[in-house]
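Hello,

Our lab assistant flagged a job as stuck in the queue for most of the afternoon. It eventually completed. Since we weren't sure the result was trustworthy after the delay, we are filing this so someone can double-check. Below is the sequence as submitted and the structure that was eventually returned. Let us know if re-running is recommended.
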Amino acid sequence: MITVRMSTQGRVTLPASLRQRMDLAAGSIFTIVALPDGLKLTTVSDCLLAQRSLDAIAGLVKARSIGTTRSLLEFDAASLNQ
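-- returned structure --
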């Protein structure tokens, strides 16, 4: 665990060893999320990766097809007739 202190201007300096290990440089952009037990600091590139739409990652995993292929409309109609 690393302990840092906030300056009177609200700035927090990340230690050089942490910046090097996380490949951070001047101008790196972060999001800060307030959690019940503290703050979560995340680099923006990680946030964008987590927010990618399903359309962007569709087809990355291939699975063997089982059964009959149906459209979404057929599935919804079938679930209403139970």
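-- support follow-up --
The delay was a queue issue, not a problem with the job. The result is valid. DSSP finds four helices and two strands in the chain. The mean pLDDT is 78.
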